[in-house]
Protein backbone atom coordinates (compact mmCIF):
# COMPACT_ATOMS: atom_id res chain seq x y z
CA UNK A 1 0.00 0.00 0.00
CA UNK A 2 1.36 3.42 -1.00
CA UNK A 3 0.64 6.14 1.56
CA UNK A 4 2.75 8.84 -0.12
CA UNK A 5 1.01 12.09 -0.92
CA UNK A 6 2.06 13.91 -4.07
CA UNK A 7 2.18 17.65 -3.55
CA UNK A 8 2.01 19.74 -6.70
CA UNK A 9 4.29 22.75 -6.79
CA UNK A 10 2.82 26.20 -6.42
CA UNK A 11 2.17 27.82 -9.76
CA UNK A 12 2.14 31.52 -10.49
CA UNK A 13 0.25 33.11 -13.34
CA UNK A 14 2.36 35.98 -14.65
CA UNK A 15 2.31 38.33 -17.59
CA UNK A 16 5.59 39.38 -19.17
CA UNK A 17 6.12 42.09 -21.75
CA UNK A 18 8.94 40.88 -23.97
CA UNK A 19 10.04 42.82 -27.03
CA UNK A 20 6.78 44.77 -26.90
CA UNK A 21 4.55 41.68 -26.82
CA UNK A 22 2.52 40.36 -23.90
CA UNK A 23 3.01 36.77 -22.79
CA UNK A 24 0.98 34.93 -20.16
CA UNK A 25 2.75 32.11 -18.34
CA UNK A 26 1.93 29.67 -15.57
CA UNK A 27 5.25 28.95 -13.87
CA UNK A 28 6.74 27.76 -10.62
CA UNK A 29 8.10 30.64 -8.49
CA UNK A 30 11.69 29.41 -8.93
CA UNK A 31 11.70 29.65 -12.77
CA UNK A 32 14.37 32.05 -13.95
CA UNK A 33 13.79 34.61 -16.65
CA UNK A 34 16.33 32.71 -18.75
CA UNK A 35 14.40 29.45 -18.53
CA UNK A 36 11.09 31.22 -19.15
CA UNK A 37 12.53 32.85 -22.28
CA UNK A 38 14.19 29.75 -23.68
CA UNK A 39 12.03 26.85 -22.53
CA UNK A 40 8.56 28.38 -22.26
CA UNK A 41 8.58 31.12 -24.90
CA UNK A 42 11.13 29.60 -27.32
CA UNK A 43 13.16 32.83 -27.48
CA UNK A 44 16.46 31.01 -27.73
CA UNK A 45 18.66 33.96 -28.70
CA UNK A 46 19.43 34.51 -25.02
CA UNK A 47 22.05 31.86 -24.23
CA UNK A 48 22.54 29.70 -21.17
CA UNK A 49 26.26 29.76 -20.50
CA UNK A 50 27.32 29.17 -16.92
CA UNK A 51 23.86 29.50 -15.29
CA UNK A 52 25.64 31.20 -12.36
CA UNK A 53 25.92 34.84 -13.41
CA UNK A 54 29.58 34.55 -14.33
CA UNK A 55 29.67 34.74 -18.14
CA UNK A 56 27.08 37.27 -19.36
CA UNK A 57 25.72 35.04 -22.15
CA UNK A 58 22.20 35.51 -20.78
CA UNK A 59 22.25 39.33 -20.70
CA UNK A 60 18.89 40.96 -21.47
CA UNK A 61 17.44 44.40 -20.72
CA UNK A 62 14.75 45.01 -18.11
CA UNK A 63 13.38 48.55 -18.27
CA UNK A 64 16.47 49.46 -20.28
CA UNK A 65 18.95 48.13 -17.72
CA UNK A 66 21.09 45.09 -18.40
CA UNK A 67 20.41 42.10 -16.20
CA UNK A 68 21.56 38.50 -16.10
CA UNK A 69 18.52 36.42 -16.94
CA UNK A 70 19.97 33.34 -15.21
CA UNK A 71 19.96 35.18 -11.85
CA UNK A 72 16.58 36.88 -12.29
CA UNK A 73 13.35 35.14 -11.43
CA UNK A 74 10.68 35.52 -14.10
CA UNK A 75 8.18 36.60 -11.44
CA UNK A 76 10.47 39.50 -10.47
CA UNK A 77 10.10 41.18 -13.86
CA UNK A 78 6.34 41.01 -14.24
CA UNK A 79 5.03 44.38 -15.38
CA UNK A 80 8.43 45.53 -16.62
CA UNK A 81 9.66 45.90 -20.21
CA UNK A 82 12.01 43.07 -21.19
CA UNK A 83 14.13 43.26 -24.33
CA UNK A 84 16.01 40.27 -25.70
CA UNK A 85 18.36 40.00 -28.66
CA UNK A 86 15.31 39.14 -30.80
CA UNK A 87 13.84 42.55 -30.00
CA UNK A 88 16.78 44.73 -31.07
CA UNK A 89 16.26 44.75 -34.82
CA UNK A 90 13.56 46.95 -36.32
CA UNK A 91 10.19 45.53 -37.33
CA UNK A 92 11.41 45.60 -40.95
CA UNK A 93 14.51 43.58 -40.03
CA UNK A 94 16.88 46.55 -39.98
CA UNK A 95 19.69 45.70 -37.61
CA UNK A 96 20.43 47.77 -34.54
CA UNK A 97 23.66 49.80 -34.93
CA UNK A 98 25.46 47.46 -32.53
CA UNK A 99 24.34 44.35 -34.40
CA UNK A 100 25.52 45.85 -37.68
CA UNK A 101 28.86 46.88 -36.14
CA UNK A 102 29.40 43.34 -34.79
CA UNK A 103 28.98 42.01 -38.32
CA UNK A 104 31.21 44.67 -39.88
CA UNK A 105 33.96 44.24 -37.28
CA UNK A 106 33.75 40.42 -37.32
CA UNK A 107 33.24 40.60 -33.54
CA UNK A 108 32.48 36.93 -33.01
CA UNK A 109 33.88 33.52 -33.76
CA UNK A 110 31.70 30.70 -32.48
CA UNK A 111 28.90 33.22 -31.80
CA UNK A 112 27.67 31.70 -28.56
CA UNK A 113 28.40 34.79 -26.45
CA UNK A 114 27.37 37.24 -29.17
CA UNK A 115 23.75 37.88 -28.08
CA UNK A 116 24.86 38.69 -24.53
CA UNK A 117 27.78 40.76 -25.80
CA UNK A 118 25.45 42.77 -28.06
CA UNK A 119 22.90 43.34 -25.29
CA UNK A 120 25.68 44.54 -22.96
CA UNK A 121 27.17 46.72 -25.70
CA UNK A 122 23.82 48.44 -26.32
CA UNK A 123 23.55 49.16 -22.59
CA UNK A 124 27.19 50.23 -22.36
CA UNK A 125 26.65 52.82 -25.09
CA UNK A 126 23.30 53.97 -23.66
CA UNK A 127 24.90 54.33 -20.20
CA UNK A 128 27.61 56.57 -21.70
CA UNK A 129 30.47 54.16 -21.05
CA UNK A 130 31.89 53.92 -24.56
CA UNK A 131 34.18 56.93 -24.53
CA UNK A 132 37.42 54.98 -24.87
CA UNK A 133 38.58 51.43 -25.52
CA UNK A 134 39.58 51.12 -21.86
CA UNK A 135 36.15 52.21 -20.70
CA UNK A 136 34.47 49.82 -23.14
CA UNK A 137 36.60 46.94 -21.87
CA UNK A 138 35.77 47.82 -18.26
CA UNK A 139 32.01 48.05 -18.79
CA UNK A 140 31.92 44.95 -21.01
CA UNK A 141 34.03 42.90 -18.56
CA UNK A 142 31.04 40.90 -17.32
CA UNK A 143 30.68 39.25 -20.72
CA UNK A 144 33.13 36.48 -21.47
CA UNK A 145 34.18 35.34 -24.93
CA UNK A 146 35.85 31.95 -24.88
CA UNK A 147 37.13 32.48 -28.41
CA UNK A 148 38.97 35.68 -27.47
CA UNK A 149 37.30 38.03 -29.95
CA UNK A 150 37.71 40.94 -27.52
CA UNK A 151 39.63 43.33 -29.84
CA UNK A 152 36.88 42.99 -32.46
CA UNK A 153 34.14 43.37 -29.83
CA UNK A 154 35.72 46.59 -28.57
CA UNK A 155 36.05 47.85 -32.15
CA UNK A 156 32.38 47.06 -32.79
CA UNK A 157 31.24 48.89 -29.65
CA UNK A 158 33.45 51.87 -30.54
CA UNK A 159 32.05 51.94 -34.11
CA UNK A 160 28.42 51.70 -32.97
CA UNK A 161 28.95 54.39 -30.32
CA UNK A 162 30.44 56.75 -32.91
CA UNK A 163 27.61 56.08 -35.36
CA UNK A 164 24.96 56.64 -32.71
CA UNK A 165 26.58 59.93 -31.61
CA UNK A 166 26.48 61.35 -35.15
UniProtKB/TrEMBL annotation:
<keyword id="KW-0408">Iron</keyword>
<dbReference type="InterPro" id="IPR036884">
    <property type="entry name" value="2Fe-2S-bd_dom_sf"/>
</dbReference>
<keyword id="KW-0479">Metal-binding</keyword>
<dbReference type="Pfam" id="PF00111">
    <property type="entry name" value="Fer2"/>
</dbReference>
<dbReference type="InterPro" id="IPR001041">
    <property type="entry name" value="2Fe-2S_ferredoxin-type"/>
</dbReference>
<dbReference type="InterPro" id="IPR012675">
    <property type="entry name" value="Beta-grasp_dom_sf"/>
</dbReference>
<dbReference type="InterPro" id="IPR052914">
    <property type="entry name" value="Aldehyde_Oxdr_Iron-Sulfur"/>
</dbReference>
<dbReference type="InterPro" id="IPR036010">
    <property type="entry name" value="2Fe-2S_ferredoxin-like_sf"/>
</dbReference>
<protein>
    <submittedName>
        <fullName>(2Fe-2S)-binding protein</fullName>
    </submittedName>
</protein>
<dbReference type="InterPro" id="IPR006058">
    <property type="entry name" value="2Fe2S_fd_BS"/>
</dbReference>
<dbReference type="InterPro" id="IPR002888">
    <property type="entry name" value="2Fe-2S-bd"/>
</dbReference>
<keyword id="KW-0560">Oxidoreductase</keyword>
<dbReference type="Pfam" id="PF01799">
    <property type="entry name" value="Fer2_2"/>
</dbReference>
<feature type="domain" description="2Fe-2S ferredoxin-type">
    <location>
        <begin position="12"/>
        <end position="88"/>
    </location>
</feature>
Amino acid sequence: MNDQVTISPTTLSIHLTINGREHALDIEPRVTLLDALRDRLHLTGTKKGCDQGQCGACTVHVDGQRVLACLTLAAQVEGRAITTIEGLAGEDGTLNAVQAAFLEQDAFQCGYCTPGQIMSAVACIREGHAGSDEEIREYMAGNLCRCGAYPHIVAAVRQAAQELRS
